[in-house]
Design goal:
Length: about 650
């Protein structure tokens, strides 16, 4: 229920704020004084107003007092002024923003048992959920506050209300490792076999996080081992996260088959070999060996691996199929790494979201050891997996730009086809982002997409620049590679992506202020860059595109200050733009043509020798200058042409 009364005048607004801050700061008496002499109607209005703070919290006095644990204030408000107990506000805890939180939720979330009791006694609804369908009980389960959990449940809180992802209180307590709460919830008949949207059960969460005792407890209460949407059982989840103890416990369960046990051991070993936090070659070998032993443990019924095709990024590694072959690689770390990557891909499957991380990790280690070729193969493989599953890539494109730059800088051979592969991924990513921005699921989504778009565009520019280095360095580039590169750049230009300030890739390519990532990338990518500009122009970039200030690329480049020391760049870009048909008399928001925007004598000379205003341009310029009506009087195609020649004059 929202308040209907409106506070409009200045003194009242300031009163609302004083009331709010007294409540927030626990000043019960001051608060009482502010409200005491008001009529019931006024109080009713004032007391239910929300105040927006700088940090984004937006609460009523009651909610904020509950949030900060001011029990006296809460009691006083309830006794004297009867605020609406079910009002919702926005509160913040450790960076989490919770919308639709009542005072009771805020007290539970912040862990103030005394306030919580006061509110429950006053009749607050214990089942009132937030916007994401979180109950006060869920907040207490998250925080591990058994006392609050008990109190709420003893006062009829519903233990079965899941959040918007169907994630239950038992799941969150299992995930966070609060054994006492898990116990209590199970005693109160919480269902351990409920599933969240992703198909996960409480057992998945406990297993994933390695909370052994919670795993035992859940199983004692009848938790079953089921698969989540990615096809992972709690056992496989534990193995993937290198939770050895959980794996060893679960494989002993009667419902686990021998094949499942082998898979779990192999995945556990394979994960140890490529885990960022829990890397252990020794553990890896131990479990790979245990699994192999199991495969051969019954000579009547040997369980052979079902191998698919090999993967180039894993050196086309073929998995060991016998104890002897496995023993032969015991002291060969690289072999164990590759064996393990191949095993993870076989057991988890190409569509598993957990598959790429260790591949990226292994690639990064290769890069650290200057094995760039291996790094790039692995990262490209991870990138392919990401795009296959339509998940944003972990191996972000910037990392490729950095490694490519490092390779060029230190003079290591870089294969142009690899850069082309990454460019292709960039185009895919930009296109995907563009589609998302046009058809957003929500407002948040849009903001995030727009932000990502900004950085993905500049990264794509770096990749283009790197590409041009290779196209010129080895003039012997494969013809088909070059054709493919041009084809991709055409596709990229057709996307017409631009930054929030309206700059296109071509603007960025000719702009000295274009930011360059400083981890290796700036050794190779510098702007303005004539080769990048030329590539873009040849592949159909809009040479007359305007940024938000109506600057065309030509406006930007003529302002380049290193006209003498970097004359070649300046000259090349201006000539390329003009020869491609850049308009010389397009005016920006300040009414300046490129010629007016020139800041150096050198640029002026280049421009002057090139200026041959066409007759149509002169006519268009005159129309704009003298504000002649033209809309409807000239063919429609000419209208936009005339538009180029003057800032938005009033045309009717
Ligand atoms: C909360 O939910 C429980 C279980 O459904 C129910 O017994 C109780 O009456 C509800 N309380 C309120 C205030 O709605
Ligand atoms: C969420 O849980 C409810 C109640 O258990 C169930 O009916 C519904 O199908 C679940 N939704 C999904 C997507 O799992
Ligand atoms: C399945 O469970 C694993 C481990 O908890 C998790 O990483 C994966 O994302 C889950 N799959 C889905 C679709 O939620
Ligand atoms: C793996 O490493 C993480 C981070 O160092 C640690 O918190 C976790 O307990 C480790 N897991 C195992 C099974 O050792
Ligand atoms: C796009 O940019 C965002 C934000 O920097 C980054 O997280 C994401 O990985 C980028 N996408 C690609 C494909 O690099």
């Amino acid at each position: 229920m929202d308040t209907t009364c409106e506070i409009i005048d200045e003194p009242q607004q300031s009163l609302v704020k004083r009331i709010y801050y007294s409540a927030r700061d626990g000043m019960a008496i001051a608060l009482y004084t502010l409200l005491n002499d008001k009529s019931d109607v006024e109080v009713d209005c004032l007391i239910n107003q929300k105040v927006l703070e700088d940090d984004g919290q937006r609460c009523t006095p009651l909610i904020v007092a509950a949030r900060y644990g001011h029990n006296k204030v809460v009691r006083m408000l309830l006794d004297k002024f009867k605020p609406d107990l079910e009002q919702e506000g926005t509160v913040k805890f450790n960076g989490y923003v919770i919308e639709g939180a009542t005072a009771l939720w805020a007290a539970a979330g912040a862990g103030h048992l005394n306030v919580l009791k006061t509110l429950v006694k006053a009749g607050a609804n214990v089942n009132h959920t937030t916007k994401t369908n979180s109950t006060p009980l869920r907040a207490a389960c998250f925080n591990g506050r058994l006392d609050i959990v008990k109190y709420l449940i003893n006062h009829q809180a519903d233990i079965n209300i899941p959040n918007m992802f169907n994630n239950t209180c038992l799941m969150i307590a299992s995930y966070k490792g609060h054994l006492d709460i898990v116990n209590f919830l199970l005693d109160k008949a919480a269902d351990p076999n409920k599933k969240a949207y992703c198909g996960a059960t409480a057992l998945h969460f406990a297993a994933e996080c390695g909370h052994n005792t919670i795993v035992y407890e859940l199983l004692k209460y009848g938790a079953q081992m089921t698969k989540n949407v990615s096809g992972m059982t709690p056992l496989i989840t534990a193995a993937e996260r290198t939770r050895e103890e959980v794996v060893e416990y679960l494989v002993k369960r009667p419902e686990v088959t021998k094949e499942e046990k082998i898979d779990a051991y192999e995945l556990l070993g394979a994960s140890y070999a490529n885990d960022k936090d829990n890397y252990s070659l020794n553990m890896a070998y131990t479990y790979l060996w245990k699994a192999m032993q199991l495969r051969y443990s019954d000579t009547e019924n040997i369980i052979h691996k079902q191998l698919g095709s090999t993967v180039k990024a894993y050196e086309n590694w073929k998995e060991c199929e016998t104890i002897e072959s496995l023993e032969s690689i015991k002291f060969n770390p690289n072999a164990i790494h590759m064996e393990s990557l191949a095993i993870r891909e076989r057991i988890l499957g190409l569509h598993n979201p957990e598959l790429p991380h260790p591949i990226v990790f292994r690639g990064a280690i290769f890069a650290d050891n200057a094995r760039f070729d291996r790094c790039i193969d692995l990262w490209l493989h991870a990138l392919k997996l990401r795009q296959l599953n339509d998940i944003s890539v972990v191996t972000d494109l910037l990392r490729f730009a950095q490694v490519f730059s490092q390779m060029i800088h230190v003079g290591v051979d870089l294969d142009i086809s690899q850069v082309i592969n990454v460019l292709e991924a960039s185009v895919t990513e930009l296109n995907r982002n563009k589609v998302k921005i046009q058809n957003p699921d929500s407002k948040d989504d849009i903001d995030q997409c727009v932000e990502e778009m900004e950085s993905n565009i500049t990264t794509t520019l770096y990749i283009l620049t790197i590409l041009t280095k290779l196209m010129t360095l080895n003039g012997n580039s494969d013809e088909s590679d070059l054709t493919q590169a041009h084809h991709l750049v055409h596709k990229l230009c057709a996307l017409k992506v631009c930054l929030k300030d309206g700059q296109t890739l071509l603007h960025l390519a000719v702009n000295a202020e274009t930011p360059v990532d400083d981890f290796h990338t700036n050794d190779v990518c510098k702007f303005p860059c004539a080769a990048t500009a030329r590539l873009l122009i040849r592949c159909g970039a809009d040479i007359n595109a305007m940024d938000n200030e109506r600057n065309t690329p030509l406006h930007i480049i003529v302002g380049y200050s290193k006209a003498i020391s970097d004359f070649a760049t300046l000259h090349s870009i201006i000539i390329d733009l003009i020869e491609a048909g850049a308009h010389m008399d397009t005016v920006n928001n300040r009414g300046h043509t490129p010629y007016d925007a020139v800041t150096t004598g050198v640029a002026k000379i280049i421009l002057r020798t090139r200026t041959k205003l066409s007759l149509t341009c002169m006519a268009a310029k005159a129309i704009k200058t003298y504000d002649l009506p033209y809309r409807g009087n000239v063919p429609r195609s000419l209208e936009s042409f005339i538009e180029l020649h003057g800032p938005g004059l009033n045309q009717s």
